[in-house]
Amino acid sequence: MKRIRSEKGLRKAIWAWRKAGEKIVFVPTMGALHEGHLTLVRLAKKHGDRVVVSIFVNPTQFAPGEDLDAYPRTEKEDARLLKAEGVDLVYIPDPQTMYNVHHATSVTVGGVAKGLETDYRPTFFDGVALVVTKLFNRVQPDMAIFGEKDYQQLATIRRLVEDLDMPTKIIGAPIARDEFGLALSSRNAYFDETGLALARKLNGIMKRCAADMRDGQHVDTATDAAKAALLAAGYSSVDYVEVRSPNSLTVLEGGYLNGPARVLVAAHCPNGKSSVRLIDNFAV
Ligand code: PAF
After folding, report:
1. 8 Å CB contact between 50 and 22
2. DSSP secondary structure letter of residue 70
3. What domain range includes position 156?
4. What's the number of domains the chain is made of?
5. Closest approach atom of ligand 1 to CA 29
6. Whose CA is nearest to atom 3 of ligand 1?
């Protein structure tokens, strides 16, 4: 596995593969890799000839109050895991070369990127869209894999690619869950035993909400019940429980299920003296 930090080195490797007619599949990450990321890598391997993974903790998607420095950095272990999966290249750009002192360009996505997460993290998807645009320009992948766990992010990237005519096919990867239904996430590492048990209740509550909708309940009734169930279980607060159309992320017309939909949740799960903000979603 090549481990490359320079843009020049990256372009050289990509160019050689392109010249040989090989299809390049890209998996962007912020590192601190876990089994969920590895499922993205395995999916990438199925789709192309060469798999490129980036590790970059992107400062532009952190809000001023969020601690960029505290984000886990486990490069050595990440590289070991990626090598074991047969990844061809791991790209670890230097933050100074990604955003040099003259950087003055932003990327803003509307539509699907508005509401839900941006009600709580207003600049998050602008930061994601910017870094993904830059990484796509550097890697020039034929395909890129994003997890459905960050469902609104996936929808935002699909919009970005279509609107800016980027020649990269976006592939969504199903959510990897533990045996109790908790979506795998770097944040799960922070949980103590009690926190983990509470976090694992989220999946059942989303399933109940989906079942209530399928049984003919109004969206508001089903989502209110889900919010109440989360709070009753011990969650400290619920940012949102929403049911949206799976592609446009618009609210359901008439307030009742009329085809496929997605339950989207963000809630704060107490853990010791603090709490962990969980986001998850479930197909209806
Ligand atoms: O989902 C993530 O890990 C990040 O938002 C991404 C897509 C790698 C951009 O920094």
Report:
1. yes
2. T
3. 2-173
4. 2
5. 8
6. 29
